[in-house]
């Protein structure tokens, strides 16, 4: 193991900066983008990407009320976490760890292996944030995305319907079958007048985090046509809301992942429910909401006529695909917001249209 940290794990609010020691002979690491329902609804992003690390990011010790936060991972162990870290057991095999202040997903413990969220990686030799080309070279030296997995959970490919990176796409894991994305199922429309695909969601769309502590009900623009957000973000037929993908530094460091997807909903058309929503002021103009229990990114609110809701949290009926529901409820703006902040070279090139 090197004598000095290879990288640090850093969240947006800088409450946490954990050193990570990587064996240079193992770099760059080949890793996956995971599209499973659990990852998408636990993080509030269209897919998650992590790298395996050879040591625990922090010790899980006996509780100390003055310096630690008790684990809520639900694993039956009386353990404690560094102060300001919340844990969530998203499945029988995985516990996720996120910042209690800004919501950044920092690490995951899965099947006795530690994983680091790639979006929170920072480099000792670079300023924060550094120049984009310098950061991209540094990222190139740490990991490369080599495949996509658990696309079966999306039903129809989700974001991969328009993210053509040429990498293998697996239905579940790499030891199983490849996933075939049917070209007949079109991705989200790119113009407000494009005809939507009808699903079973009706006139109210629900969005929900993994644990269910935060829920959102979304109405179509036509439900309240006089709402000021309709003219700005509603489609011409009154059926859909504008949506987009973002690679900005704030989204990356508050979610822990490279790409976030948002749907811009009129304030009058949105109802938020549940006791789990907490807010973080991520900039002078905006606050973000995430679930205090599972850490899912839920919303971005700049105080205007619309509120951005995490598209990854949209619920769907059995047999419906992620992209099909998005097509019925959203129309996609061209390109990716803040591509100039992107650090992953491949994602910057291939996520410019998204799904």
Automatic annotation (TrEMBL):
Checking Gene3D superfamilies in the record gives: glutathione-dependent formaldehyde- activating enzyme (gfa)
MF term (GO), any: carbon-sulfur lyase activity
Q: Which residues form the CENP-V/GFA domain?
A: 7-151, 205-330
Is NADP there in the keyword field?
no
Q: Which UniProt keywords apply?
A: Lyase, Metal-binding, Zinc
Stretches that traverse the bilayer: none
Per the record's keyword annotation, is Membrane included, yes or no?
Answer: no
Could you say which residues form the signal peptide? none
In which domain of life is the source organism classified? Eukaryota
Q: Which Pfam families match?
A: GFA
Regarding protein family, the annotation reads: Belongs to the Gfa family.
Q: Which PANTHER family match?
A: CENP-V_GFA DOMAIN-CONTAINING PROTEIN-RELATED, GFA DOMAIN-CONTAINING PROTEIN
- Name the chain's protein: CENP-V/GFA domain-containing protein
Organism from which the protein derives = Dacryopinax primogenitus (strain DJM 731)
